[in-house]
Design brief:
- There is one protein chain.
- Helices cover about 75% and strands about 0% of the residues.
- With about 220 residues, it is mainly alpha-helical.
- Helix 2 runs antiparallel to helix 3, helix 3 runs parallel beside helix 5 and helix 4 packs across helix 6.
- The longest helix has about 35 residues.
- The protein is globular.
- The C terminus is likely disordered.
């Protein structure tokens, strides 16, 4: 049985990462603003497929590795903490990227939009690290059914990420105009997300629990 705290942890990590400007958000916003909401939604379909591919690959491998080598948990946890700290720095450092002022991009066919969304996600190191070293820490080895836990927690991440990205895609044009008139709001968003990510990184770094006690 997956505990509520595990779900809360995955949702918090997913929210912190999806709201931090990265390749996926920049691509989706660019498409939505320059080619319309439909193009953004099609591109998001490719991104969602990328999440599913990572979920399948990570869980089928990690469910075996974690049972055979539980010490690997510590290394993965520290890698996850380091990457969260990196994302926090990118959000908090001066001159952060304004994702809602993207460069213009050419109009593409629905097939190319979907493929580009998929490749943007598959080539995004933030997503790879999330599945390899962040989500697995919420799996409780003592509870058994490691593979099932991994899929359920990963599905929660996908729902959060796709839901937030869909909202951003549908509102990209409106948000871009709003922030262009109120740049201070963008700064507030960056600092808020950076603070959340930094807190998560510190929490992971100082956590001394073992793989069997985690989750």
């Amino acid at each position: 049985m997956i505990e509520t705290s595990a779900f809360a942890g995955v949702v918090t990590v997913a929210l912190g990462m999806v709201l931090t400007p990265g390749p996926n958000m920049i691509y989706l916003v660019s498409r939505s603003i320059t080619q319309g909401r439909r193009a953004g939604v099609i591109s998001l379909g490719g991104v969602a497929l990328g999440f599913m591919i990572y979920l399948l690959a990570a869980n089928l491998g990690l469910s075996v590795i974690f049972i055979a080598v539980p010490e690997l948990y510590v290394a993965l946890k520290l890698a996850g903490a380091a990457y969260l700290a990196h994302l926090a720095w990118n959000a908090l450092k001066p001159g952060g990227v304004d994702v809602f002022s993207p460069q213009d991009v050419p109009h593409d066919s629905p097939r190319k939009l979907f493929t580009m969304g998929l490749m943007t996600n598959l080539l995004n190191p933030k997503i790879a690290i999330m599945y390899i070293s962040l989500i697995p820490q919420f799996v409780d080895l003592d509870a058994g059914h490691v593979l099932f836990q991994g899929f359920v927690l990963g599905a929660a991440q996908i729902v959060v990420s796709v839901g937030v990205n869909l909202a951003i895609v549908l509102a990209a044009g409106t948000i871009a105009v709003f922030l262009a008139r109120r740049p201070t709001w963008l700064t507030v968003q960056r600092y808020a997300m950076g603070t959340v990510l930094l807190a998560l990184a510190l929490s992971l770094a100082i956590d001394t629990s073992t793989p069997a006690a985690a989750g």
